[in-house]
Amino acid sequence: MHWIVFLIPVFGVIALIFTAVRSSWIKKQDAGEKNMQELAAYIASGAMAFLRAEWKVLGYFAIIAALLLAYSGTLVETSSPIIAVSFIIGAVLSATAGYIGMNVATKANVRTTQAARTSLSKALKVSFAGGSVMGLGVAGLAVIGLGSLFIVFYQIYVVSQGATVNGMEMEKALEVLAGFSLGAESIALFARVGGGIYTKAADVGADLVGKVEAGIPEDDVRNPATIADNVGDNVGDVAGMGADLFGSYVATILATMVLGREIVSEDDFGGIAPILLPMLIAGIGLIFSIVGTFFVRISKETDSVQNALNLGNWSSIILTVIASFFVVNYLLPDQLSLRGYQFGAMDVFWAIFVGLVVGALMSVITEYYTAMGKRPVNSIVRQSSTGHATNIIGGLSVGMESTVLPILVLAAGIITSYSFAGLYGVAIAAAGMMATTAMQLAIDAFGPIADNAGGIAEMSGLPEEVRHRTDNLDAVGNTTAATGKGFAIASAALTALALFAAFVGIAGISTIDLYKAPVLGALFVGAMIPFIFSSLAIAAVGKAAMDMVNEVRRQFREIPGIMEYKARPEYEKCVAISTKASIREMLLPGAIALVVPLLVGFGLKGVFPTASSPEILGGLLAGVTVSGVLMGMFQNNAGGAWDNAKKSFEKGVLINGKMEYKGSPAHKASVTGDTVGDPFKDTSGPSMNILIKLMSIVALIIAPHISERTGEHEVNKGIQDQQQKKEVVITSDEVKGMTEVE
Amino acid sequence: MHWIVFLIPVFGVIALIFTAVRSSWIKKQDAGEKNMQELAAYIASGAMAFLRAEWKVLGYFAIIAALLLAYSGTLVETSSPIIAVSFIIGAVLSATAGYIGMNVATKANVRTTQAARTSLSKALKVSFAGGSVMGLGVAGLAVIGLGSLFIVFYQIYVVSQGATVNGMEMEKALEVLAGFSLGAESIALFARVGGGIYTKAADVGADLVGKVEAGIPEDDVRNPATIADNVGDNVGDVAGMGADLFGSYVATILATMVLGREIVSEDDFGGIAPILLPMLIAGIGLIFSIVGTFFVRISKETDSVQNALNLGNWSSIILTVIASFFVVNYLLPDQLSLRGYQFGAMDVFWAIFVGLVVGALMSVITEYYTAMGKRPVNSIVRQSSTGHATNIIGGLSVGMESTVLPILVLAAGIITSYSFAGLYGVAIAAAGMMATTAMQLAIDAFGPIADNAGGIAEMSGLPEEVRHRTDNLDAVGNTTAATGKGFAIASAALTALALFAAFVGIAGISTIDLYKAPVLGALFVGAMIPFIFSSLAIAAVGKAAMDMVNEVRRQFREIPGIMEYKARPEYEKCVAISTKASIREMLLPGAIALVVPLLVGFGLKGVFPTASSPEILGGLLAGVTVSGVLMGMFQNNAGGAWDNAKKSFEKGVLINGKMEYKGSPAHKASVTGDTVGDPFKDTSGPSMNILIKLMSIVALIIAPHISERTGEHEVNKGIQDQQQKKEVVITSDEVKGMTEVE
């Protein structure tokens, strides 16, 4: 085995060392006075209570799924029962990534509050350190996990069999490795959906009774649901987001590797370079994310926090691009071909570049549609002056409009990266985009930490200036949350397409032809799934919030002295309710995502003479992806825009020549939009990412079982593959020649 | 030419005779007292003012489009400048259909009010007579137009050339005929979108100032916007709906004829039977719609109006099914084949049957999701008790959920009808579903007439019992409006698929392969279009409503004595504002629908070596159709459910053991949902039908220009077609054999 294979986990280890160092630095920071520590302890224990409850349910799920996978692994030659082990490792690492993030976030929050008593600079340092522990931890675990398992499976199935890197043996190694991705993504689904339901049920519940009925401010210690609300930030925005991006990161790399296997490459590494490239790009991105974190700092109270974060982000991206150029040219030869598409090393580099550009544009566009002071948010502000209904209409209209540019960018990205390096180009573009995931996630996770820090400052009655500093961080956190979602949905879309391409290869089909009625029917059904998924997620928030409302009302009624600060509310009961409700409600949407591909893949096998079940499944996946991306963008951006329209009133806005502030009828209308937007932007919208990725991974996992290739063929497939490729290369060459003549 | 060809326009003539008879009967009815007649005259003149303004703009558009079409007709052999004539006739007939409907509706409304002073039975008789004039007029004009133009073009291009019915000559005849459909659908787009904006701008504007600011009831003569509001019902729900279904009806028949040309049929009519069948089915449906109208009657005050309408509807459907059985078996032989798919006469009959079942199921499901007292509406009612935001969340959730069953029915319908008779099956299923369009439209148009009648009763201060009777009719009208929309979107979906299939044939492509990156990119872009279209439509209502609000405020301010009934408001100024705003705002969404297919079809010609521009356009159309159908259902049903949730409070509802009525906070929250739902269900939602059909028709029209077939090939195409078909037939036979062995 070439030494370069062993380099990959090393990158991951370096990241984890940094994670450990930062984490221990945070723990050493001052956690403030006793009451602050007490509140932080409630939040931390509430968050752990949720994780434990979630893990219990997921434990059962994982065991059953692993058994099924192990059995299925015995049925075809290109899989193995070992896939179950791979699955379990993926699930455990995903859960661990969520745990690391949440653990550090619940420590960093109170320490950020305490740091904010000194200076903004110090508060940023602590909160961003927390975020970077999360980011580096997630990406580090992913790279170590994928890298080490690849070494093991490569050794077992390929090297020890003396097989080639393009053959069925490597396909088997990657199919078994796909179990890792399935494990990661399954946990991510439940973490994202469950966490999303949790955080919004607590938020809406706390607001409805606390702010509206009891008339006490947000984050007031007298509100029994306030701890649950703060727990929710960690559960949804930290652990959920972490598991989501862990899943995307792994799935993207894996899909690119699967496509890489099919590439005939005469490189200096025995032809394995196209398979290794995505992991190496991830490793490089990880290292430069570490470098980038050092740029995130401010010195004066008046420095822009957003600029500091941008500097860190852009420096890691630019350094990764430069390094990718050298790595790609070092690894790959000038002649590559995949399924008849010919390209060279530089084409691959440009595809990576396209991916990074798409990611950056997505963030910029998302920011425009959700930022305060820009046209879209201002239009909602203006429409709030004529009431609740026009505020809602304005937000829905902005959300729908906000899909236009991202979709055009995405479509251009797909077509451009494809034209550089075929399907491998689309996949490696996704991998390029995801390379600096560690940095993206650090910036993202910093937001909820700052949010929590503000909550603790409020609950502990710290001076105005402390709250002012945490508010400054929190406002930046709102923007990064929105842009982070733009990045997440775009990466999910490219990941899904990469998985889609990998699926097509393994399932042995050559078209996904909409001209066939069953494929077209499946496209319709697939496109409907994000609608029912969103509907269930939104309705779940409503139901869980009602449970919370009833509990808070009960406590106000039955525990005398809460309102006079004489009695402590039973925070843990609210935490338990949110936990229970969210775990109950996440099951049905989760089941839909997992079961539908199985039903279509196995249930329609051989039913239609004109269309095979993998082709129908392909139509279904296309429908889910297209509709999921649109619904995700629509809901995320509408929610973000409503939120900032409401926030605009806090500073005061000029409507029809009159200043309107908090408390005006227009502001009240804007609160309605914000509340509607909550489940949109924090529950159903972000779930779309996982939905589309998970369904594609399930399809990839079952691909060998529903494949059109029969047993006999499979044995000789490795060799046939090579021959076919060479034939096609010639044809494609001719085609290229013709095009140039035109 | 066989005599049966001449039978088709005869059906249309019969329908128009009935239309004239009914229409003159309505005019002879008592129009009530002077003030009633005065109000009716305002509404009628307002409606005509809108039509005139719209026609003026559309006149310019039609002339330019016709010139372009005439020029384009000179460029390829399978078209002709005559297509421009065909286009103009389609546009004029579509406008005429809208005019007939609106003319009779503005006469029937006041006569229904007057009839309601006598009995419910008489009020139903008058209002339904108005609806049936509209329905029979629309369908009659369509059948006459299509039937006569077909005779002319068939004579010119086929019979006089001595050509076969399967050849390029017939393709040319049908391509020229497609201009008729384009004309009809273009007018429909503007009528639907413009009408939709008009009606909701007037409605929202009237409510915001009248009900909310001035505190006067709905339909109060003192409100300057009240006439505009009543005009809106006619403009949007009558003329807009009529033009929409006229377009669907024509497009469906045409698409089936285009596919029918490719069928090799050894029938007794020289092989033309598959081309004639859709027109004959339409003719039969028209006759039985006339028959069905006689069943719509009640005798007692307590009889159910809904049951009377259902009886009329079902009798026309069942009679059409029975007649279709005989017609199909009379016309078609037992052996037919289309693009390699083999089927017989009975298969075609079953496909028609599938279409009728799909249409019926759509109506039933839509009714469930939007009717009072059922789970979905009740859930919104319950969620209204916790405020505006939860009411909105509830409605959005219901709307999204409501897509599930219709999509499953639609997908099953596509696959089943395809399995019976290939693509011809899908198209003829749509034709079957549309056969009783006259009856559907009669039931649909009856609603706004009853609504207007109620408005006139209120404005003229007639006794309680009159308003009670018109309310009874209006309530049924709300349900039929919702189910009518379910029918319209389902028929649009099947029509679009039929057009899609016809497009594929004429463009000379054999796959629409999502595996090709440009096709997949186009799918994304296509799916985005319904989002931006909806966004524009919704925002347009907001803008136009603001104009209206300002005008009403001005009149209250500047015209003294309005509130004391001493001065008459300037109704016509409000009408003019709504007219101007709606016509201004309809242009951009309309342009998108017309221009995007041109850009993709011509702009991407030869750009990608792997995917031809027709194939990319195919991907775009698939995206538009899938996403448009979902967005249409989502918006229509959410809007309908919100409306009836609000109406539930008028009767009183039980929430948490307490009765809540009009005026309660929960009712106020439900009004917010209703207002949000207005543009959803009456502007953007129903526009989706036209959007998806129009883009498909534009594609079909430009298909010969972007076709992959080159000039040389085209000349011999007729013969080649035949040969290819025979070859494929054998292959398909083998495949069938193989399947049976399995």
Summarize the amount of helix of chain A as a percent range.
Answer: over 70%
Strand order of the largest sheet of chain A: 1-2-3
Q: Write down the oligomeric state.
A: homodimer
The tally of strands of chain A reads 5
Q: Alpha-carbon distance between the termini of chain A?
A: 46 Å
Q: How big is the Rg of chain A?
A: 25 Å
Basic shape of chain A:
globular
Succession of helices and strands of chain A? HHHHHHEHHEEHHHHHHHHHEEHH
Q: Count the helices of chain A. How many?
A: 19
Largest inter-chain contact set:
A-B, 84 and 83 residues
Count of all domains of chain A: 2
The proportion of residues in beta strands of chain A is: under 5%
Unreliable stretches of chain A: 710-742
- Indicate the mean pLDDT of chain A: 87
Largest sheet of chain A at a glance?
3 strands, antiparallel
The secondary structure category of chain A is: mainly alpha
Per-chain topology:
Two copies of one chain form a homodimer.
Chain A: H1 3-28, H2 34-73, H3 83-116, H4 120-159, H5 168-214, H6 226-261, E1 264-265, H7 273-293, H8 305-331, E2 336-338, E3 341-343, H9 345-370, H10 375-384, H11 388-401, H12 404-434, H13 437-459, H14 464-507, H15 517-558, H16 571-603, H17 613-651, E4 653-655, E5 658-660, H18 665-706, H19 711-741
Antiparallel strand pairs in A: 1-2, 2-3, 4-5
Folded structure, characterized:
2 copies of one chain form a homodimer. With 742 residues, the first copy, chain A, is mostly helical. The first copy, chain A, folds into 2 domains: 3-709, no CATH class; 710-742. Chain A is 82% helix and 2% strand. Chain A has 19 helices and 5 strands. Chain A has helices at 3-28, 34-73, 83-116, 120-159, 168-214, 226-261, 273-293, 305-331, 345-370, 375-384, 388-401, 404-434, 437-459, 464-507, 517-558, 571-603, 613-651, 665-706, 711-741, and strands at residues 264-265, 336-338, 341-343, 653-655, 658-660. The first copy, chain A, has a 3-stranded antiparallel beta sheet with strand order 1-2-3, with helices on both faces. The longest helix of chain A has 47 residues, at 168-214. The radius of gyration of chain A is 25 Å and the shape is globular. The interface between A and B is large, with 84 and 83 residues.
